[in-house]
Amino acid sequence: MLLIVFAFSCKKTHKIKAPIVIENPIQNETTKIDTIKLPKLPAKLAFNYLSSDTKIDFSDGSNDAKFKVGMRIRKDSLIWLSMRANIGVEGLRLLISKDSIQVIDYQEKTYRTFLFKDLSQEYGFELNYNLVQAILIGEMPIEKFDTQKVFRDSTHYIIRQDEGFLSVDNFLNKDNLQLEKLYAKDKQRGSEMELLYSNFITLGNGLFPENNKVKLNYYNKQGNFRISLDIDHKKTKISETPLEFPFRVPAKYKKM
Question: How far apart are CA 90 and CA 106, in angstroms?
């Protein structure tokens, strides 16, 4: 969902002639890989509250932008983002909940609300809170999986999930079952996404990826589009102490 917000922050994504190359090592069920039983459940980061100083590089093929982001998460509930451009002035503030994303634009003096169901229709891809959180902390966005759809290659356990028109392949490190790669494709509309996680650090009793790379090719009535993000987290902390999520729209701001 960050993808949608960054597209909005750059005013408009542009139709492209060629998509980003996204290659899934296992494209279909006939691929010769071994079915396997997982030795334990996929790794999850246990926390109530998480905060981080984050840098994000955005590109849609025509626009490039860099952001400094203050990030706070109440797990499975709220994500708060304060976004600043290189000049250091806060440009956008976001509050992401289970059903929507609220955005304050301090440059334009406006605010708006995006519903996940509307964004999914607009961008030709199933978008929801779990996907946003998964992108940020490196966990499987769909928790349930069929034990008959677990495979193994030379370096990873692979969990394949099918939810309606959405097909997801999760690549878990064979040693610690930490998610390192994810490929998702909307089989009806052809939109596809790749997530890559690296530079893991220890947080509490789990691991957290300091670098996330996101690629998205999406298709809708207006044409074909692409977005890529490079996310770098620093000074990441987890806490039992509640964090604040300040979000107040100034009285004179215009609703879009």
Answer: 7
Q: Which amino acid is at 59?
A: S
Name the CA dihedral angle for 22, 100, 76, 133, rounded to a multiple of 10 degrees.
20
pLDDT > 80? residue 178: yes
Residue closest to 56 by CA, chosen among 38, 25, 82, 77: 82
The span from the CA of 219 to the CA of 187, in Å, is 12
pTM for the predicted model, two decimal places? 0.84
For residue 220, how many C-alpha atoms fall within 13 Å in the half-sphere facing its CB? 17
Torsion over CA: 105, 126, 214, 39 (sign): positive
What's the whole-number mean pLDDT along residues 24-45? 71
pLDDT digits (tens, 9 = 90+) for 120-170: 887 666 789 988 898 899 999 888 898 888 998 888 999 999 888 889 999
**What domains are there in the chain, each with its CATH number?**
2-16+28-241 (2.50.20.10)
For residue 78, the cross-strand partners are: 74
Length of the chain: 256
Q: What is the DSSP letter of 108?
A: T
Confidence of residue 28 (pLDDT cuts 50, 70, 90): very low
CA dist 88 and 67 (Å) reads: 9
Alpha helices in the chain (DSSP H): 2-9, 116-123, 129-137
Cα–Cα dist 6/211, whole Å:
18
Do residues 158 and 150 touch, judged by C-beta distance below 8 A?
yes
What is the distance between the alpha carbons of residues 229 and 214, in angstroms, rounded to a whole number? 5
Residue with tokens 């994504």: 13
- The residue whose two tokens read 């005013």 is 11
C-alpha span between 133 and 201 (Å, rounded) = 18
